[in-house]
Design goal:
Blueprint (H helix, E strand, L loop, with lengths): L2 H9 L1 E7 L2 E5 L6 H11 L5 H4 L4 E5 L10 H18 L3 E8 L7 E7 L3 H10 L4 E6 L5 E4 L1
Antiparallel strand pairs: 1-2, 1-4, 3-5, 3-6, 4-5, 6-7
Length: 147
C-alpha cells in the first residue's frame, strides 16, 4: 500500500480513548475541545495547567498488526510487550482502541500515552514496527507522526 493510501486509512479510523468520564473518539485533523478539557481537568491532577496555557502532549501507540495482519495470539503478545515497555518507562497512559470506519481492518487495542514528546513516540513506534503513530497536544488537532 502506498503512503497516500496508508494516510487515507489512518484518517478513516476512530482512535477511541477510554477514560473515567467516558469514551472519546479522536480523529486525525479534528480538534476535540471536550477531550482537551478532560485532559486539563483530570490528567493534570488539580494543577492549573489549563489556565497557564501549557499544553499537554500525548500520543497513541499500538503494537498490533505492524503493516501486516498477525494472529490474535501474536498481537496480544506484542501488546503485552508494549504495556510492559510503557510501565518500565513510567509513562502514564489510558487504554484505547483504534477502529477503522469500514470494518475491513480489525479493531486494535492501543494506549494513549500522556506527557510524551515526538521523539519518544517515534522510538516506541519504531520499536513495535509501526508505520505511524497518532500524536497531539491540547489546543490542536491530532495528527499522524510517520515513523
Amino acid at each position: 500500500m502506498n503512503r497516500a493510501a496508508l494516510d487515507a486509512a489512518f484518517r478513516a479510523t476512530s482512535y477511541r480513548v477510554v477514560t473515567s468520564k467516558g469514551i472519546f473518539a479522536l480523529r486525525i485533523g479534528v480538534a476535540d475541545a471536550a477531550f482537551d478539557a478532560f485532559l486539563y481537568r483530570e490528567v493534570t491532577l488539580g494543577q492549573s495547567l489549563g489556565s497557564t496555557g501549557r499544553a499537554i502532549h500525548w500520543g497513541i501507540v499500538t503494537a498490533y498488526n505492524p503493516g501486516v495482519l498477525l494472529s490474535t495470539e501474536e498481537n496480544q503478545l506484542r501488546q503485552q510487550r508494549l504495556h510492559d515497555r510503557i510501565a518500565a518507562a513510567g509513562w502514564r497512559f489510558l487504554r484505547g482502541c483504534n477502529l477503522a470506519d469500514d470494518d475491513l481492518w480489525p479493531a486494535e487495542p492501543s494506549c494513549l500515552l500522556l506527557h510524551v514528546d515526538e521523539g519518544q513516540l517515534r522510538i516506541l513506534g519504531r520499536e513495535f514496527d509501526q508505520l505511524a503513530v497518532v500524536c497531539g497536544r491540547t489546543g490542536t488537532a491530532p495528527r499522524l507522526l510517520w515513523i
